[in-house]
Amino acid sequence: MAMNPVHDVPQQAPSVAGEARLLAAVSELRDHTDERWVEIADDMLVNILRRSRPSHPVRAETPGGEFHVSELVLITALRHALDPIARCEITDIHIHSERGSYTGITIVATAQIPHPLIPMADRIRDIAQDRLRKILGTPVPHVTVEAMHVHFGDVTKDNPKLR
Amino acid sequence: MTRSSQWRVSNDGSSPVPSDPETARLAPVSERSDVVLARRASLGDRYAFAELFRRHGAGLYRHALRMLDGDHHAAEDAVQEALTKAWLKIDTFHGESQLRTWLFRLLINECLNVRRRRRPLVVDDQMLELLTHDQEADPHVSAVDQHLREALDLALSELPFRQRAAWLLSEIEDLSYAEIAEVLRTNVTVVRGQLHRARSTLAVRMAQWR
Hints:
Strand content of chain A: 25-35%
Shape of chain A: elongated
Helix content of chain B: 55-70%
Structural class of chain A: alpha+beta
Oligomer: heterodimer
Shape of chain B: globular
Largest interface: A-B, 56 and 64 residues
Helix content of chain A: 40-55%
Number of strands of chain A: 5
Largest sheet of chain A: 3 strands, mixed
Largest sheet of chain B: none
Number of helices of chain A: 5
Number of strands of chain B: 0
């Protein structure tokens, strides 16, 4: 007779022994790391990080001519430039562009209080402006609140993680 | 040091992925929350993503392996696809749900894609027989544990896809009913029903294990 255990089984009452074995098997499975995962994890991570995200091009101008820079390259360069600022962590960067030309930027940060926020915002703007000018050339709009918006999305107090 | 060894994954938790040398002032990546790491990864911080990979990769692989009937190659492909999508689209993760829930949702979609592409599994005799275990031949506890796990894997392979996914996410990965509902794109009532049926079936099948 044909048997389909998937449909037959629920009609039976689960026994105490079955539930105990199931619990033991769950515990065993939770603690278990598949050997195959240990073998493949490093290579898989390298393969994943090799992939580039699609990103909008931003026009850059130098005396030698015009070229385009990926928005993601700009964001990564800005992150590296801004990360060393003390008592602050950059959490988001949005590049604004119109017809491929840079028009402005929004930088979101978490800051540690009671450290004054306005000087910190000015420092973020100055560093970002400097880095953008180095990458995109001279047409980068001047530092204004409209063109380079710094937003403190969160503040934290006595957070040892934000030194 | 090669780039490959820089991203080395530690599964025992003893040597966490190092911080980006340029952000050494900030807390080590291993001390940061998933949400903070996801934000950093969206800014192109590969070290942050490597830490997320270290935290969740093994669990995702364990889940994929059981959802794909123990097929290591298929599980590897599904996890790699899911995590590649996570890396490429992490800027679309805004923290409305747990990052783990988001990753499992990506993985379930990949597992469904794999299952759609492959031929139906032929049920063999082993699945129709009582689960057996010869204790005389395996006197060591570790061997018993291994057989117990294999028995569970076999019993799991008999469950329908959604029941199996719900049970694994609840019992092994500790997701809440609401999180499971989000991963499986259903509601909590349905999840509760699927879990009840899965638990009953598995308990009966495990009772047959000798």
